């Protein structure tokens, strides 16, 4: 038998390539600059790989963005878990707003929200990217609206409460806080906005 030959590294990819670490760097770049404003050269420099290696590991830039977006939305604390785990719709909205205020002002992450910043920077040429971002936001709003409607039906919220308006208000404030954070607003300022927003909810 011939001796087993050591496998050679794939061309264009460093021997120490760490896919998860590279994806984290791509996520941070997209978060800071948005989808279209992030160049391929910036991505490869931050990820420590060559363009052929990026294409080999992730596909094209758009596929990389969608995977980075999934990473941004994953984790132990997500909008889905916040809404599902909250005892009431009011608590769900309050938690969504507070988590957003803190997440938009992290010490080691770009200010604002990746969903919002990427959508703003997208041109008509990236219609599918904008639609995917909008679909995610609509999904969050729909889940919250259903929880509010449930609380209205069960007498937790008064009959005159408007589930559609309250869910939309929550999402509007979240997106507004993202813009304020990118403009330099402090976490304390955003958390005060959260408390003011919750005062608009019916008792």
TrEMBL record:
Keywords in alphabetical order: DNA-binding, Transcription, Transcription regulation
Molecular function GO labels: DNA binding
Protein known as: TetR/AcrR family transcriptional regulator
Originating species: Gemmatimonas groenlandica
The HTH tetR-type domain, residue ranges: 16-76
Keyword Mitochondrion attached: no
PROSITE patterns noted in UniProt: HTH_TETR_1 (PS01081), HTH_TETR_2 (PS50977)
Gene3D superfamilies assigned to the protein according to its UniProt record, in alphabetical order: Homeodomain-like, Tetracycline Repressor, domain 2
Statement: the UniProt record of this protein carries the keyword Transcription: yes
Cited Pfam families: TetR_C_13 (PF16925), TetR_N (PF00440)
DNA-binding region: 39-58
């Amino acid at each position: 038998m011939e001796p087993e030959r050591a496998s050679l590294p794939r061309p264009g990819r460093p021997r120490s390539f760490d896919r998860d670490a590279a994806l984290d760097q791509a996520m941070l770049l997209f978060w800071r600059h948005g989808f279209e404003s992030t160049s391929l050269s910036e991505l490869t420099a931050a990820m420590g790989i060559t363009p052929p290696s990026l294409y080999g590991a992730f596909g094209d830039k758009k596929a990389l963005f969608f995977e980075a977006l999934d990473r941004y939305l994953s984790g132990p604390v997500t909008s889905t878990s916040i809404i599902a785990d909250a005892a009431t719709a009011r608590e769900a909205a309050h938690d969504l707003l507070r988590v957003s205020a803190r997440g938009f002002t992290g010490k080691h992450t770009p200010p604002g929200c990746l969903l919002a910043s990427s959508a703003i920077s997208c041109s008509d040429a990236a219609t599918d990217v904008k639609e995917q971002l909008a679909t995610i936001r609509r999904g969050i709003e729909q889940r919250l609206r259903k929880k509010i409607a449930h609380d209205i039906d069960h007498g937790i919220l008064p009959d005159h409460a408007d589930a559609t308006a309250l869910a939309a208000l929550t999402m509007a404030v979240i997106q507004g806080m993202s813009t304020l954070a990118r403009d330099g607003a402090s976490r304390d300022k955003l958390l005060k906005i959260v408390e003011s927003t919750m005062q608009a909810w019916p008792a």
